[in-house]
Write a structure and sequence with these properties.
By secondary structure, the protein is of the alpha/beta class. The protein is 46% helix and 14% strand. It has a six-stranded mixed β-sheet, sandwiched between helices. It has a four-stranded parallel β-sheet with strand order 2-1-3-4, with helices on both faces. The longest helix has 36 residues, at 169-204. The chain is flat, with a radius of gyration of 26 Å.
Amino acid sequence: MSKYSRKIAKLVDTAPKEETAVLIALIHQQETEQVVQEHLDELSFLTETLGAKSVHRFTQRMDKPDARTFVGSGKLEEIKTYIEYFSVDMAIFDEDLSPSQVKILENELKIKVYDRSMLILDIFLSRAQTAQAKTQVELARYQYLLPRLTRMWTHLERQRGGTATRGGAGEKEIETDKRDIRQKIDLLKEKLKKIEKQGHTQRKGRKGIVRAALVGYTNVGKSTLMNLLTKANILAENKLFATVDSTVRKVVLENIPFLISDTVGFIRKLPTHLIESFKSTLAEIEEADLLIHVVDLSHPNFEDQITVVNQTLNEMGAGDKPVIMVFNKIDVAPKMPSEEELMLMSAHEVEEANFIDFEKLEESYAKKSSIRPVFMAAGNGTNIEGFRKVVTAEVKKIHQKIYPHYLEDEVLDLSQYDVGD
């Protein structure tokens, strides 16, 4: 072996090892295996967004989770065996776990245990950029961790004193940590109040100008569309929650000025603490005059995603606002082929392909709203002009209500509006 070869042989790979995870879900009554697998597809995408790789899935049909271990004893043993054999780093559950379940599962599996909420909170924490978003996520995370602190001190032995009172180091550390976290929660709430006050002042200064908000499920292309409209350099990538900060930009179309905001994407089972903490950011939606609901038409469950978004908007009290439905990613959606092409395909092939009839879809949503939906592909600019025309027409309607005697050649001076970031 040459001197050079011996040097190469001594080199050690110092690149960080990609963490691996197993995904775990229950199949409840009236749920199908297919639906649960689709939910696990999303959980896998969330895992990837966090920076880990899902290597296996476990499902079990149960009416309700086991109070102690979430899954049954036999399934838990199966999961434990797999984790030990393949040296898996974490177990991720598709539902929220109670503090006692997390503690028992970590003791049994000897690895990190995530539930869906903690996974989303960690992703939000890594993605937040502005002071407001960071404060909101940090507050939500602490509120979620507080009742789960016991599992963080399993390395310290719990002891009982001679008087049968708890006096071990672990218990003292837990109580100290709880006090610290409660203090941090109070400080974060005060900080958030100040930020929200500033935000309210900014939004108050925008009165008299039409406000539109991009809404939709996460990873449907809202930020890409925002960049196309405003030439803004907003992060847009194929990951869930690529951005969690609300961004407001000025736009002028056909001499009509308006503000447009890109808001955090919705998702199935969004953690309650996170919704509560993000109320100030979601105020952009609540105070908008027009909502632009972006849908990923290429997603096999796009209709379910529409339902999740509509339900969330209704819960926020924003369900009665005018909405432009934008069916995005038509370039990769399975569009219904022509009659001639269909004749060359078998019934099975047609069923498997899940083709989308764009015309029927347009008619269906046109009946639900006075605004006809837009079909486009923001990624490559397909029908961006059609989208601009629809937005301009709707903004004009709202603008004319604010300024009935608005002159066509008049351009509002936007310098008076502090739109923030």
